[in-house]
Amino acid sequence: MHAWLCTTPTGVDALAWTELPTPEPKAGEVLIEIKAASLNFPDLLIVQNQYQIKPPLPFVPGAEYAGVVRAVGEGVKHLQPGQNVACLSGTGGFGTHTIAQAALCMPLPPGFALEDAAAFIMTYATSHHALIDRGQLQPGETVLVLGAAGGVGTAAIQIAKARGARVIAAASSDDKCALCQALGADATINYTRENLRDAIKAATAGKGPDVVYDPVGGDFAEPALRSIAWRGRYLVVGFASGPIPALPLNLPLLKGASIVGVFWGEFAKREPQANATMMAELARWYGEGKVKPVLDRTLPMSALREAFALMGSRAVKGKLVLVNA
């Protein structure tokens, strides 16, 4: 097997395409032949030693991938060789093969494309957990999605629409806003040329959004929170822009609003049955055509550095996927 090996977490340039022995799965594990792997923002942070999880060196980055089970370890009953799966294991995805815990693998129903599956779990699980569980989104409510053209943003638009909500999508260019409209957004805001608070006020007739979905942080957090509706829920999903905002706590007081943390990974660990039920609903929605990952492009696995550069440029709409021939 071959994989992009990180021996020193000093950035993307330190990764090397390396030949490694193909491992054998131990008890509770499976060997997966990787067909496709997607890029997520933590993949960049982890090779820069800036992520909260720091795997022991050396490691193969790549949190999320899909492929074919080639061997199973002792005690694995729900998976078998030849079966297509998607997996979110935190590391191991940027290569030709990997070992994963069987419990972390999602069996794929017939017709679930592997490229889509590689870009599915993290963004759709995060957005479903955020909007439906933590945000308690109800049909007819209004959701403001920041960073709406990114991976989690495009998933959030689709899930909110499947829930029967009205969606205002905020993104950084007209092209990205057009993508959001194509996904079903009812209104869009280009926040590079529109005042965010004024645009939210206009799009909600002064009421404000019931739910704010924020994977961006930075300078847009406070104006979005100031614009929230009475009893609104502000979902703290991530900080893709870099800075972690310091929000004045009088704002949720004045609006009777809630600031709600979203940590899907911990939810999945602590509440595995609820997570499994959620993933089954998402797989069903995929089969019904209600949700489908937005793939900016697919690149060969050898183009990992190019893919990281594209992601860092903020030019990506949806997700980047690397494929093995």
Describe the structure in brief.
GO terms for molecular function: oxidoreductase activity; zinc ion binding. This protein is of the alpha/beta class and 325 residues long. The protein has helices at 41-47, 114-117, 121-134, 151-162, 174-182, 196-203, 221-226, 250-255, 264-270, 272-287, 304-312; strands spanning 2-5, 16-19, 29-38, 64-72, 84-88, 97-101, 105-107, 142-145, 166-171, 187-190, 211-214, 233-236, 258-261, 295-300, 319-323.
- CATH homology group of the largest domain: Medium-chain alcohol dehydrogenases, catalytic domain
From N to C, what is the helix and strand string?
EEEHEEEEHHEHEHEHEHEHEHHEHE
Rg is 20 Å
CATH topology of the largest domain: Quinone Oxidoreductase, Chain A, domain 1
- The total beta strand count reads 15
Describe the structure.
The chain has 325 residues and is of the alpha/beta class. It folds into two domains: 148 residues, Medium-chain alcohol dehydrogenases, catalytic domain (Quinone Oxidoreductase, Chain A, domain 1, Alpha-Beta Complex); 144 residues, NAD(P)-binding Rossmann-like Domain (Rossmann fold). 30% of the residues lie in helices and 24% in strands. Strands 3, 4, 5, 6, 7, 14 and 15 form a seven-stranded mixed beta sheet that branches. Helix 3 crosses helix 10 and helix 9 packs across helix 10. The longest helix is centred in the last third of the chain and has 16 residues. The relative contact order is 0.14.
SSE topology:
Layout: E1 2-5, E2 16-19, E3 29-38, H1 41-47, E4 64-72, E5 84-88, E6 97-101, E7 105-107, H2 114-117, H3 121-134, E8 142-145, H4 151-162, E9 166-171, H5 174-182, E10 187-190, H6 196-203, E11 211-214, H7 221-226, E12 233-236, H8 250-255, E13 258-261, H9 264-270, H10 272-287, E14 295-300, H11 304-312, E15 319-323
Parallel strand pairs: 8-9, 8-11, 9-10, 11-12, 12-13, 14-15
Antiparallel strand pairs: 1-2, 3-4, 3-6, 3-15, 4-5, 5-7
